[in-house]
Amino acid sequence: MFLEKLDDYTVVDIMGTDLVTVNEDTSFREAIGEMLRGNTDEVLILDRKGHIMGMVCFTDFIKGMKDIPGKNSFEDKIIKYAIKNVVCIESRAKALDARNLMQQKGIGRLPVLEDNRLIGVIRVKDILDKVYLKVDEMRETFRYILDNLHEAVCVVDKEGTVVLWCGKAEKLYGVKSEEIVGRKLEEFFPTGLLMKVLQEKKPIENVLHSPRKGSYVNISAIPLFINGELVGGVSTDRDITEVRNLSLELEAAKEKLDYLQMEVNKISEDKYSFGKNLGKSCIIRDRMNRAMQVAATNSSVLITGESGTGKEVFARSIHQVSGRKGSFVAINCSAIPENLFESEMFGYEGGAFTGALNKGKIGKIELANKGTLFLDEIGDMPLHMQVKLLRVLQERQVFRVGGEKAIDIDIRIISATHRDLKSMIKEGSFREDLFYRLNVVSIELPSLKDRKEDIPMFVKHFMEEFCRENNLSIPRITPEVLQVLMCYSWPGNIRELKNIVEHLVVFSKEGEIKMESLPEHLTVPEERQQELDVVYDLQENIRRIEIDSIRRAMAAAEGNKAQAAKLLNIPRSTLYYKIKFYDLVEYL
Protein backbone atom coordinates (compact mmCIF):
# COMPACT_ATOMS: atom_id res chain seq x y z
CA MET A 1 0.00 0.00 0.00
CA PHE A 2 1.07 3.59 -0.58
CA LEU A 3 1.25 4.66 3.07
CA GLU A 4 3.10 1.50 4.09
CA LYS A 5 5.62 1.97 1.28
CA LEU A 6 6.13 5.64 2.17
CA ASP A 7 6.80 4.71 5.80
CA ASP A 8 9.92 2.79 4.72
CA TYR A 9 11.65 5.97 3.47
CA THR A 10 13.32 8.90 5.20
CA VAL A 11 13.06 12.38 3.80
CA VAL A 12 16.63 12.06 2.45
CA ASP A 13 15.47 9.12 0.29
CA ILE A 14 12.82 11.14 -1.50
CA MET A 15 14.14 14.71 -1.48
CA GLY A 16 15.40 16.51 -4.56
CA THR A 17 18.80 18.23 -4.60
CA ASP A 18 18.27 20.50 -7.62
CA LEU A 19 18.24 23.69 -5.57
CA VAL A 20 18.38 27.33 -6.56
CA THR A 21 19.64 29.54 -3.73
CA VAL A 22 20.36 33.26 -3.55
CA ASN A 23 21.33 35.72 -0.82
CA GLU A 24 19.13 38.42 0.68
CA ASP A 25 20.77 41.17 -1.45
CA THR A 26 19.82 39.48 -4.73
CA SER A 27 17.44 41.61 -6.82
CA PHE A 28 14.02 40.53 -8.07
CA ARG A 29 15.35 40.56 -11.65
CA GLU A 30 18.40 38.41 -10.81
CA ALA A 31 16.26 35.90 -8.91
CA ILE A 32 14.01 35.42 -11.95
CA GLY A 33 17.08 34.72 -14.05
CA GLU A 34 18.41 32.18 -11.52
CA MET A 35 15.06 30.41 -11.40
CA LEU A 36 14.87 30.15 -15.20
CA ARG A 37 18.44 28.89 -15.46
CA GLY A 38 17.89 26.35 -12.71
CA ASN A 39 14.53 25.20 -14.11
CA THR A 40 12.90 25.14 -10.69
CA ASP A 41 9.83 26.95 -9.50
CA GLU A 42 11.17 28.03 -6.14
CA VAL A 43 14.13 30.11 -5.00
CA LEU A 44 15.49 29.72 -1.47
CA ILE A 45 17.10 32.73 0.23
CA LEU A 46 20.03 31.89 2.52
CA ASP A 47 22.05 34.03 4.89
CA ARG A 48 25.85 33.92 5.06
CA LYS A 49 25.78 30.88 7.34
CA GLY A 50 23.57 28.92 4.98
CA HIS A 51 20.43 29.29 7.07
CA ILE A 52 17.07 29.74 5.34
CA MET A 53 15.73 33.30 5.49
CA GLY A 54 12.84 32.87 3.11
CA MET A 55 11.47 31.24 -0.03
CA VAL A 56 9.88 32.64 -3.19
CA CYS A 57 7.75 30.32 -5.34
CA PHE A 58 6.68 30.69 -8.93
CA THR A 59 3.32 32.27 -8.09
CA ASP A 60 5.06 34.71 -5.79
CA PHE A 61 7.13 35.88 -8.78
CA ILE A 62 3.99 36.32 -10.84
CA LYS A 63 2.23 38.20 -8.04
CA GLY A 64 5.33 40.35 -7.53
CA MET A 65 5.44 41.24 -11.21
CA LYS A 66 1.76 42.22 -11.19
CA ASP A 67 2.26 44.41 -8.11
CA ILE A 68 5.34 46.17 -9.49
CA PRO A 69 4.35 49.81 -10.33
CA GLY A 70 7.40 50.70 -12.42
CA LYS A 71 10.41 49.15 -14.06
CA ASN A 72 12.79 50.37 -11.40
CA SER A 73 11.05 48.03 -8.88
CA PHE A 74 12.65 44.98 -10.55
CA GLU A 75 15.78 46.08 -8.70
CA ASP A 76 14.03 45.54 -5.31
CA LYS A 77 15.65 42.91 -3.14
CA ILE A 78 14.02 39.50 -3.55
CA ILE A 79 13.64 39.17 0.25
CA LYS A 80 10.84 41.74 -0.06
CA TYR A 81 8.62 39.17 -1.83
CA ALA A 82 9.68 36.10 0.16
CA ILE A 83 7.71 33.87 2.49
CA LYS A 84 9.65 34.40 5.72
CA ASN A 85 8.38 31.63 7.99
CA VAL A 86 9.33 28.67 5.80
CA VAL A 87 8.12 25.28 6.99
CA CYS A 88 11.10 22.86 7.03
CA ILE A 89 11.79 19.27 8.11
CA GLU A 90 14.88 17.56 9.55
CA SER A 91 16.80 15.00 7.48
CA ARG A 92 16.23 12.26 10.10
CA ALA A 93 12.43 12.46 9.78
CA LYS A 94 10.38 9.82 7.97
CA ALA A 95 8.98 10.45 4.52
CA LEU A 96 5.50 9.81 5.91
CA ASP A 97 6.02 12.67 8.37
CA ALA A 98 6.90 14.91 5.43
CA ARG A 99 3.76 13.82 3.59
CA ASN A 100 1.58 14.53 6.66
CA LEU A 101 3.21 17.94 7.23
CA MET A 102 2.72 18.94 3.60
CA GLN A 103 -0.91 17.88 3.72
CA GLN A 104 -1.50 19.67 7.03
CA LYS A 105 0.11 22.93 5.84
CA GLY A 106 -1.24 22.72 2.30
CA ILE A 107 2.21 23.18 0.76
CA GLY A 108 3.83 21.66 -2.32
CA ARG A 109 7.47 21.81 -1.26
CA LEU A 110 9.32 21.20 1.99
CA PRO A 111 13.00 22.19 2.54
CA VAL A 112 15.12 19.52 4.27
CA LEU A 113 17.64 20.63 6.94
CA GLU A 114 20.62 18.87 8.45
CA ASP A 115 22.30 20.66 11.36
CA ASN A 116 20.17 23.68 10.45
CA ARG A 117 21.65 23.82 6.90
CA LEU A 118 19.71 23.23 3.68
CA ILE A 119 20.50 19.93 1.93
CA GLY A 120 17.44 19.37 -0.27
CA VAL A 121 13.77 20.00 -1.02
CA ILE A 122 10.87 17.56 -1.03
CA ARG A 123 8.37 18.22 -3.78
CA VAL A 124 5.25 16.27 -4.62
CA LYS A 125 6.89 14.97 -7.79
CA ASP A 126 9.79 13.63 -5.68
CA ILE A 127 7.35 11.54 -3.66
CA LEU A 128 5.64 10.36 -6.84
CA ASP A 129 9.01 9.49 -8.38
CA LYS A 130 10.03 7.19 -5.50
CA VAL A 131 6.80 5.44 -4.62
CA TYR A 132 4.08 3.77 -6.62
CA LEU A 133 0.84 5.53 -5.94
CA LYS A 134 -2.26 3.42 -5.97
CA VAL A 135 -4.69 5.92 -7.46
CA ASP A 136 -7.80 4.99 -5.49
CA GLU A 137 -5.96 5.31 -2.15
CA MET A 138 -4.00 8.48 -2.85
CA ARG A 139 -6.71 10.53 -4.61
CA GLU A 140 -8.41 11.78 -1.45
CA THR A 141 -5.16 12.09 0.51
CA PHE A 142 -3.38 14.32 -1.98
CA ARG A 143 -6.27 15.98 -3.77
CA TYR A 144 -6.09 19.12 -1.64
CA ILE A 145 -2.33 19.43 -2.09
CA LEU A 146 -2.42 18.79 -5.84
CA ASP A 147 -5.25 21.23 -6.44
CA ASN A 148 -3.27 23.96 -4.71
CA LEU A 149 0.06 23.33 -6.38
CA HIS A 150 1.51 25.83 -8.82
CA GLU A 151 2.11 22.98 -11.29
CA ALA A 152 -0.41 21.14 -13.43
CA VAL A 153 -0.13 17.45 -12.43
CA CYS A 154 -1.31 14.57 -14.59
CA VAL A 155 -1.07 10.86 -13.65
CA VAL A 156 -1.72 8.05 -16.13
CA ASP A 157 -1.63 4.28 -15.82
CA LYS A 158 0.61 2.09 -18.00
CA GLU A 159 -2.02 2.10 -20.76
CA GLY A 160 -2.04 5.89 -20.94
CA THR A 161 -5.42 6.30 -19.27
CA VAL A 162 -5.70 9.44 -17.17
CA VAL A 163 -6.28 8.62 -13.50
CA LEU A 164 -5.62 12.08 -12.02
CA TRP A 165 -5.97 15.54 -13.46
CA CYS A 166 -5.49 18.32 -10.88
CA GLY A 167 -7.17 21.72 -10.66
CA LYS A 168 -4.18 23.62 -12.06
CA ALA A 169 -4.23 21.40 -15.15
CA GLU A 170 -7.87 22.33 -15.68
CA LYS A 171 -6.99 26.03 -15.66
CA LEU A 172 -3.86 25.65 -17.77
CA TYR A 173 -5.36 23.54 -20.56
CA GLY A 174 -9.06 24.35 -20.29
CA VAL A 175 -10.02 20.66 -19.87
CA LYS A 176 -12.21 19.64 -16.92
CA SER A 177 -11.24 16.67 -14.74
CA GLU A 178 -14.53 14.91 -15.39
CA GLU A 179 -13.92 15.18 -19.15
CA ILE A 180 -10.45 13.58 -19.21
CA VAL A 181 -10.19 11.19 -16.22
CA GLY A 182 -10.79 7.61 -17.37
CA ARG A 183 -10.00 8.43 -21.01
CA LYS A 184 -6.81 8.06 -23.03
CA LEU A 185 -4.48 11.08 -22.73
CA GLU A 186 -3.63 10.93 -26.45
CA GLU A 187 -7.30 11.68 -27.30
CA PHE A 188 -6.73 15.19 -25.93
CA PHE A 189 -2.96 15.53 -26.44
CA PRO A 190 -1.77 13.36 -29.33
CA THR A 191 1.84 14.54 -28.88
CA GLY A 192 1.81 14.55 -25.06
CA LEU A 193 5.18 13.82 -23.43
CA LEU A 194 3.69 11.25 -21.06
CA MET A 195 2.94 8.94 -23.98
CA LYS A 196 6.58 9.12 -25.07
CA VAL A 197 7.70 8.43 -21.48
CA LEU A 198 5.50 5.33 -21.30
CA GLN A 199 6.92 4.06 -24.59
CA GLU A 200 10.60 4.75 -23.84
CA LYS A 201 10.35 4.20 -20.06
CA LYS A 202 12.71 7.14 -19.52
CA PRO A 203 12.09 10.47 -17.79
CA ILE A 204 11.95 13.72 -19.74
CA GLU A 205 12.73 16.90 -17.82
CA ASN A 206 12.26 20.63 -18.39
CA VAL A 207 10.93 20.67 -21.92
CA LEU A 208 9.56 24.00 -23.19
CA HIS A 209 6.20 23.55 -24.87
CA SER A 210 3.57 25.89 -26.30
CA PRO A 211 0.17 24.19 -25.92
CA ARG A 212 -1.53 27.12 -27.64
CA LYS A 213 -0.44 30.35 -29.30
CA GLY A 214 0.92 32.87 -26.86
CA SER A 215 1.26 30.45 -23.92
CA TYR A 216 4.31 28.51 -22.75
CA VAL A 217 4.78 25.70 -20.24
CA ASN A 218 7.77 23.85 -18.82
CA ILE A 219 7.04 20.10 -18.68
CA SER A 220 8.72 17.24 -16.82
CA ALA A 221 7.43 13.66 -17.06
CA ILE A 222 8.65 10.44 -15.40
CA PRO A 223 7.67 6.76 -15.63
CA LEU A 224 6.53 5.04 -12.41
CA PHE A 225 7.92 1.60 -11.55
CA ILE A 226 7.14 -0.95 -8.82
CA ASN A 227 9.63 -3.81 -8.47
CA GLY A 228 10.96 -2.98 -11.89
CA GLU A 229 7.54 -3.10 -13.55
CA LEU A 230 6.08 -0.05 -15.31
CA VAL A 231 2.79 0.91 -13.68
CA GLY A 232 2.19 4.42 -15.03
CA GLY A 233 3.60 7.89 -15.39
CA VAL A 234 3.27 11.41 -14.02
CA SER A 235 3.89 14.83 -15.54
CA THR A 236 4.20 18.25 -13.96
CA ASP A 237 3.64 21.30 -16.15
CA ARG A 238 4.55 24.84 -15.06
CA ASP A 239 3.00 27.86 -16.77
CA ILE A 240 5.94 30.17 -17.61
CA THR A 241 4.13 32.42 -20.09
CA GLU A 242 4.45 35.59 -18.03
CA VAL A 243 8.03 34.84 -17.02
CA ARG A 244 9.07 34.07 -20.58
CA ASN A 245 7.37 37.20 -21.93
CA LEU A 246 8.99 39.23 -19.18
CA SER A 247 12.38 37.73 -20.00
CA LEU A 248 11.94 38.65 -23.67
CA GLU A 249 10.83 42.17 -22.75
CA LEU A 250 13.77 42.60 -20.39
CA GLU A 251 16.19 41.42 -23.06
CA ALA A 252 14.71 43.81 -25.62
CA ALA A 253 14.76 46.65 -23.09
CA LYS A 254 18.39 45.91 -22.25
CA GLU A 255 19.36 46.07 -25.91
CA LYS A 256 17.56 49.41 -26.26
CA LEU A 257 19.19 50.78 -23.11
CA ASP A 258 22.63 49.65 -24.29
CA TYR A 259 22.05 51.38 -27.62
CA LEU A 260 20.71 54.55 -25.97
CA GLN A 261 23.63 54.62 -23.54
CA MET A 262 26.03 54.36 -26.44
CA GLU A 263 24.28 57.23 -28.23
CA VAL A 264 24.25 59.36 -25.05
CA ASN A 265 27.97 58.76 -24.61
CA LYS A 266 28.57 59.86 -28.19
CA ILE A 267 26.55 63.03 -27.64
CA SER A 268 28.37 63.78 -24.38
CA GLU A 269 31.76 63.21 -25.94
CA ASP A 270 30.92 65.58 -28.77
CA LYS A 271 29.21 68.24 -26.66
CA TYR A 272 31.57 68.39 -23.73
CA SER A 273 34.95 67.53 -25.19
CA PHE A 274 37.68 70.11 -24.58
CA GLY A 275 38.35 72.21 -27.64
CA LYS A 276 34.96 71.64 -29.25
CA ASN A 277 32.73 74.27 -27.64
CA LEU A 278 34.79 75.92 -24.91
CA GLY A 279 36.78 78.31 -27.09
CA LYS A 280 40.15 78.87 -28.76
CA SER A 281 41.40 82.06 -27.13
CA CYS A 282 44.77 81.94 -25.38
CA ILE A 283 43.27 82.56 -21.95
CA ILE A 284 40.70 79.76 -22.21
CA ARG A 285 43.29 77.43 -23.75
CA ASP A 286 45.42 77.95 -20.64
CA ARG A 287 42.45 77.00 -18.43
CA MET A 288 41.70 73.93 -20.56
CA ASN A 289 45.29 72.72 -20.36
CA ARG A 290 45.17 73.09 -16.60
CA ALA A 291 41.86 71.20 -16.44
CA MET A 292 43.05 68.34 -18.67
CA GLN A 293 46.13 67.95 -16.50
CA VAL A 294 44.02 67.44 -13.37
CA ALA A 295 41.14 65.54 -15.05
CA ALA A 296 42.84 62.14 -14.91
CA THR A 297 43.30 62.41 -11.12
CA ASN A 298 40.75 62.24 -8.30
CA SER A 299 41.69 65.69 -6.99
CA SER A 300 38.88 68.10 -6.12
CA VAL A 301 38.52 71.10 -8.43
CA LEU A 302 37.08 74.52 -7.58
CA ILE A 303 35.93 76.53 -10.62
CA THR A 304 35.43 80.25 -10.04
CA GLY A 305 34.21 83.05 -12.27
CA GLU A 306 31.30 85.36 -12.94
CA SER A 307 27.79 84.02 -13.53
CA GLY A 308 27.31 82.84 -17.08
CA THR A 309 30.97 82.03 -17.83
CA GLY A 310 30.24 78.33 -18.42
CA LYS A 311 31.37 76.75 -15.17
CA GLU A 312 29.07 73.73 -15.44
CA VAL A 313 30.03 73.10 -19.08
CA PHE A 314 33.67 73.22 -18.00
CA ALA A 315 32.97 70.78 -15.14
CA ARG A 316 31.22 68.36 -17.49
CA SER A 317 34.20 68.50 -19.85
CA ILE A 318 36.54 67.58 -17.00
CA HIS A 319 34.31 64.61 -16.14
CA GLN A 320 34.11 63.55 -19.79
CA VAL A 321 37.87 63.20 -20.18
CA SER A 322 38.45 61.85 -16.66
CA GLY A 323 37.59 58.28 -17.62
CA ARG A 324 35.35 57.82 -14.57
CA LYS A 325 32.68 55.21 -15.28
CA GLY A 326 29.90 56.72 -13.16
CA SER A 327 27.52 59.57 -13.91
CA PHE A 328 27.98 63.33 -13.77
CA VAL A 329 25.50 64.53 -11.14
CA ALA A 330 24.96 68.28 -10.76
CA ILE A 331 23.50 69.98 -7.67
CA ASN A 332 22.67 73.70 -7.66
CA CYS A 333 23.17 74.60 -4.00
CA SER A 334 21.29 77.87 -4.40
CA ALA A 335 18.15 76.22 -5.76
CA ILE A 336 17.48 73.63 -3.01
CA PRO A 337 15.36 74.71 -0.01
CA GLU A 338 17.39 74.45 3.18
CA ASN A 339 14.96 72.00 4.82
CA LEU A 340 15.28 69.59 1.86
CA PHE A 341 19.04 69.83 1.40
CA GLU A 342 19.98 66.80 3.49
CA SER A 343 17.45 64.41 1.92
CA GLU A 344 18.39 65.58 -1.60
CA MET A 345 22.10 65.08 -0.95
CA PHE A 346 22.04 61.88 1.11
CA GLY A 347 18.69 60.29 0.25
CA TYR A 348 16.41 58.72 2.83
CA GLU A 349 15.00 55.40 3.97
CA GLY A 350 11.31 54.60 3.53
CA GLY A 351 9.15 56.29 6.15
CA ALA A 352 12.08 58.35 7.49
CA PHE A 353 9.85 61.41 7.79
CA THR A 354 6.33 62.61 6.98
CA GLY A 355 5.85 62.64 3.21
CA ALA A 356 8.74 60.26 2.52
CA LEU A 357 8.24 57.59 -0.13
CA ASN A 358 7.63 54.11 1.28
CA LYS A 359 10.50 52.65 -0.71
CA GLY A 360 12.87 55.49 0.19
CA LYS A 361 14.96 57.52 -2.23
CA ILE A 362 18.58 57.46 -3.33
CA GLY A 363 20.53 60.69 -2.78
CA LYS A 364 22.53 62.69 -5.32
CA ILE A 365 25.81 61.65 -3.72
CA GLU A 366 24.96 57.95 -4.18
CA LEU A 367 23.89 58.63 -7.77
CA ALA A 368 27.36 60.05 -8.44
CA ASN A 369 29.14 56.92 -7.15
CA LYS A 370 32.09 56.04 -9.41
CA GLY A 371 31.46 59.36 -11.16
CA THR A 372 31.57 63.10 -10.53
CA LEU A 373 29.50 65.23 -8.13
CA PHE A 374 29.26 68.86 -9.31
CA LEU A 375 28.33 71.32 -6.56
CA ASP A 376 27.30 74.52 -8.32
CA GLU A 377 27.09 77.72 -6.27
CA ILE A 378 28.84 75.99 -3.37
CA GLY A 379 28.94 79.33 -1.56
CA ASP A 380 25.17 79.07 -1.01
CA MET A 381 25.38 75.73 0.84
CA PRO A 382 24.01 76.05 4.42
CA LEU A 383 26.62 75.80 7.19
CA HIS A 384 25.11 72.65 8.74
CA MET A 385 25.33 70.92 5.36
CA GLN A 386 28.93 72.03 4.94
CA VAL A 387 29.79 70.05 8.09
CA LYS A 388 28.05 66.92 6.77
CA LEU A 389 29.64 67.25 3.32
CA LEU A 390 33.06 67.54 4.94
CA ARG A 391 32.41 64.29 6.83
CA VAL A 392 31.43 62.54 3.58
CA LEU A 393 34.65 63.71 1.91
CA GLN A 394 36.74 62.53 4.86
CA GLU A 395 35.14 59.12 5.44
CA ARG A 396 34.03 58.34 1.87
CA GLN A 397 30.75 57.06 3.28
CA VAL A 398 27.20 58.36 3.34
CA PHE A 399 24.24 57.63 5.63
CA ARG A 400 20.72 58.05 4.30
CA VAL A 401 18.30 60.09 6.41
CA GLY A 402 16.68 57.65 8.82
CA GLY A 403 19.20 54.93 7.94
CA GLU A 404 21.88 53.27 10.05
CA LYS A 405 23.87 51.50 7.33
CA ALA A 406 26.97 53.24 5.97
CA ILE A 407 27.15 53.27 2.17
CA ASP A 408 30.64 53.37 0.66
CA ILE A 409 31.08 55.88 -2.15
CA ASP A 410 33.76 56.74 -4.67
CA ILE A 411 33.15 60.25 -6.02
CA ARG A 412 35.15 63.07 -7.51
CA ILE A 413 34.08 66.55 -6.36
CA ILE A 414 34.00 69.54 -8.68
CA SER A 415 32.54 72.70 -7.17
CA ALA A 416 31.85 76.15 -8.61
CA THR A 417 30.99 79.61 -7.36
CA HIS A 418 30.92 83.25 -8.42
CA ARG A 419 31.37 84.35 -4.81
CA ASP A 420 34.56 85.17 -2.88
CA LEU A 421 34.83 82.17 -0.57
CA LYS A 422 37.85 83.59 1.29
CA SER A 423 35.81 86.62 2.31
CA MET A 424 32.99 84.33 3.36
CA ILE A 425 35.44 82.38 5.55
CA LYS A 426 36.37 85.60 7.34
CA GLU A 427 32.69 86.42 7.80
CA GLY A 428 32.05 82.96 9.22
CA SER A 429 29.58 81.90 6.50
CA PHE A 430 31.85 79.28 4.91
CA ARG A 431 34.00 76.65 6.62
CA GLU A 432 37.72 76.99 6.12
CA ASP A 433 38.38 73.24 6.39
CA LEU A 434 35.80 72.51 3.66
CA PHE A 435 37.31 75.23 1.46
CA TYR A 436 40.70 73.54 1.54
CA ARG A 437 39.10 70.17 0.78
CA LEU A 438 37.37 71.60 -2.31
CA ASN A 439 40.15 73.93 -3.44
CA VAL A 440 42.85 71.35 -4.21
CA VAL A 441 43.00 72.70 -7.77
CA SER A 442 41.52 76.11 -8.58
CA ILE A 443 40.52 77.19 -12.09
CA GLU A 444 39.22 80.71 -12.67
CA LEU A 445 37.18 81.13 -15.85
CA PRO A 446 37.56 84.50 -17.64
CA SER A 447 34.67 86.80 -18.45
CA LEU A 448 33.49 86.89 -22.06
CA LYS A 449 34.78 90.45 -22.43
CA ASP A 450 38.28 89.08 -21.81
CA ARG A 451 38.02 86.49 -24.58
CA LYS A 452 36.09 88.26 -27.33
CA GLU A 453 37.89 86.30 -30.03
CA ASP A 454 35.70 83.34 -29.01
CA ILE A 455 32.45 85.23 -29.70
CA PRO A 456 32.13 84.19 -33.41
CA MET A 457 32.58 80.53 -32.43
CA PHE A 458 29.89 80.80 -29.73
CA VAL A 459 27.51 82.63 -32.09
CA LYS A 460 27.85 79.90 -34.71
CA HIS A 461 27.42 77.13 -32.12
CA PHE A 462 24.35 78.66 -30.46
CA MET A 463 22.72 79.41 -33.82
CA GLU A 464 23.17 75.82 -35.00
CA GLU A 465 21.92 74.41 -31.69
CA PHE A 466 18.81 76.64 -31.55
CA CYS A 467 17.92 76.04 -35.21
CA ARG A 468 18.34 72.29 -34.84
CA GLU A 469 16.10 72.16 -31.76
CA ASN A 470 13.40 74.27 -33.45
CA ASN A 471 13.70 72.80 -36.94
CA LEU A 472 14.76 76.12 -38.49
CA SER A 473 17.14 76.98 -41.28
CA ILE A 474 20.36 78.61 -40.09
CA PRO A 475 20.31 82.30 -41.11
CA ARG A 476 23.32 84.26 -42.32
CA ILE A 477 24.66 86.92 -39.95
CA THR A 478 25.87 90.21 -41.44
CA PRO A 479 29.34 91.59 -40.57
CA GLU A 480 27.75 94.70 -39.03
CA VAL A 481 25.80 92.60 -36.52
CA LEU A 482 28.86 90.54 -35.68
CA GLN A 483 30.82 93.76 -35.12
CA VAL A 484 28.20 94.97 -32.64
CA LEU A 485 28.41 91.68 -30.79
CA MET A 486 32.21 91.93 -30.66
CA CYS A 487 32.08 95.47 -29.22
CA TYR A 488 29.46 94.81 -26.54
CA SER A 489 30.70 94.45 -22.92
CA TRP A 490 28.67 91.27 -22.13
CA PRO A 491 27.92 91.70 -18.41
CA GLY A 492 25.91 88.43 -18.51
CA ASN A 493 28.78 86.58 -20.21
CA ILE A 494 28.19 83.45 -22.34
CA ARG A 495 24.69 82.89 -20.94
CA GLU A 496 23.64 86.37 -22.08
CA LEU A 497 25.23 85.78 -25.49
CA LYS A 498 23.22 82.56 -25.91
CA ASN A 499 19.94 84.37 -25.14
CA ILE A 500 20.75 87.18 -27.58
CA VAL A 501 21.66 84.71 -30.34
CA GLU A 502 18.25 83.07 -29.92
CA HIS A 503 16.68 86.54 -30.14
CA LEU A 504 18.60 87.24 -33.36
CA VAL A 505 17.47 83.98 -34.98
CA VAL A 506 13.83 84.56 -34.01
CA PHE A 507 13.84 88.09 -35.48
CA SER A 508 15.90 87.29 -38.58
CA LYS A 509 14.26 88.06 -41.92
CA GLU A 510 14.60 86.27 -45.23
CA GLY A 511 17.33 84.03 -43.86
CA GLU A 512 19.53 86.90 -42.69
CA ILE A 513 20.31 88.55 -39.35
CA LYS A 514 20.53 92.31 -39.86
CA MET A 515 20.97 95.29 -37.58
CA GLU A 516 17.22 95.58 -37.02
CA SER A 517 17.29 92.03 -35.57
CA LEU A 518 19.40 93.23 -32.64
CA PRO A 519 17.84 93.96 -29.22
CA GLU A 520 17.45 97.70 -28.58
CA HIS A 521 20.07 97.89 -25.86
CA LEU A 522 22.71 96.65 -28.32
CA THR A 523 21.91 99.10 -31.10
CA VAL A 524 22.42 102.27 -29.03
CA PRO A 525 26.08 103.20 -28.42
CA GLU A 526 27.03 102.92 -24.75
CA GLU A 527 27.80 106.65 -24.49
CA ARG A 528 24.42 107.52 -25.97
CA GLN A 529 22.74 104.89 -23.83
CA GLN A 530 24.18 106.52 -20.72
CA GLU A 531 22.87 109.87 -21.88
CA LEU A 532 19.43 108.43 -22.44
CA ASP A 533 19.55 106.83 -19.03
CA VAL A 534 20.13 110.21 -17.33
CA VAL A 535 16.57 111.34 -16.68
CA TYR A 536 15.18 113.18 -13.73
CA ASP A 537 11.85 111.42 -13.47
CA LEU A 538 12.27 109.29 -10.37
CA GLN A 539 9.53 106.81 -11.31
CA GLU A 540 11.03 106.34 -14.79
CA ASN A 541 14.46 105.74 -13.32
CA ILE A 542 13.00 103.15 -10.93
CA ARG A 543 11.17 101.47 -13.81
CA ARG A 544 14.34 101.24 -15.94
CA ILE A 545 16.46 99.96 -13.07
CA GLU A 546 13.91 97.31 -12.09
CA ILE A 547 13.45 96.07 -15.67
CA ASP A 548 17.21 95.95 -16.24
CA SER A 549 17.79 94.17 -12.91
CA ILE A 550 15.09 91.59 -13.64
CA ARG A 551 16.50 90.85 -17.09
CA ARG A 552 20.04 90.46 -15.78
CA ALA A 553 18.91 88.23 -12.90
CA MET A 554 16.82 86.04 -15.22
CA ALA A 555 19.78 85.71 -17.58
CA ALA A 556 22.10 84.77 -14.73
CA ALA A 557 19.54 82.25 -13.40
CA GLU A 558 18.92 80.78 -16.87
CA GLY A 559 15.21 81.57 -16.62
CA ASN A 560 14.75 80.03 -13.16
CA LYS A 561 12.43 82.50 -11.41
CA ALA A 562 13.07 81.12 -7.92
CA GLN A 563 16.81 81.59 -8.31
CA ALA A 564 16.38 85.00 -9.97
CA ALA A 565 14.23 86.18 -7.05
CA LYS A 566 16.95 85.06 -4.68
CA LEU A 567 19.56 87.05 -6.65
CA LEU A 568 17.26 90.11 -6.54
CA ASN A 569 16.65 89.54 -2.81
CA ILE A 570 12.87 89.74 -3.24
CA PRO A 571 10.07 87.16 -2.72
CA ARG A 572 9.27 85.05 -5.76
CA SER A 573 5.68 86.36 -5.72
CA THR A 574 7.03 89.92 -6.04
CA LEU A 575 9.11 88.88 -9.04
CA TYR A 576 6.04 87.36 -10.73
CA TYR A 577 4.10 90.57 -10.06
CA LYS A 578 6.80 92.86 -11.53
CA ILE A 579 7.25 90.68 -14.63
CA LYS A 580 3.52 90.98 -15.27
CA PHE A 581 3.42 94.66 -14.30
CA TYR A 582 6.20 95.60 -16.74
CA ASP A 583 4.76 93.24 -19.38
CA LEU A 584 8.05 91.34 -19.79
CA VAL A 585 6.44 88.83 -22.13
CA GLU A 586 9.65 86.85 -22.65
CA TYR A 587 9.41 85.67 -19.01
CA LEU A 588 5.63 85.09 -18.74
TrEMBL record:
SUPFAM superfamilies given in the database record: CBS-domain pair (SSF54631), Homeodomain-like (SSF46689), P-loop containing nucleoside triphosphate hydrolases (SSF52540), PYP-like sensor domain (PAS domain) (SSF55785)
PROSITE patterns: CBS, PAS, SIGMA54_INTERACT_1, SIGMA54_INTERACT_2, SIGMA54_INTERACT_3, SIGMA54_INTERACT_4
UniProt GO molecular function: ATP binding; sequence-specific DNA binding
Pfam families: AAA_lid_14, CBS, HTH_8, PAS_4, Sigma54_activat
Keyword ATP-binding (UniProt): yes
Key words, A-Z: ATP-binding, CBS domain, Coiled coil, DNA-binding, Nucleotide-binding, Transcription, Transcription regulation
Record-linked InterPro entries: AAA+_ATPase (IPR003593), AAA_lid_NorR (IPR058031), CBS_dom (IPR000644), CBS_dom_sf (IPR046342), Homeodomain-like_sf (IPR009057), HTH_Fis (IPR002197), P-loop_NTPase (IPR027417), PAS (IPR000014)
The PAS domain, residue ranges: 138-189
Domain CBS residue range list: 15-73, 82-137
Keyword Coiled coil: yes
Highest taxon above the source species: Bacteria
CDD domains, A to Z: AAA (cd00009), CBS_pair_SF (cd02205), PAS (cd00130)
The Sigma-54 factor interaction domain, residue ranges: 277-506
This protein's name: PAS domain S-box-containing protein
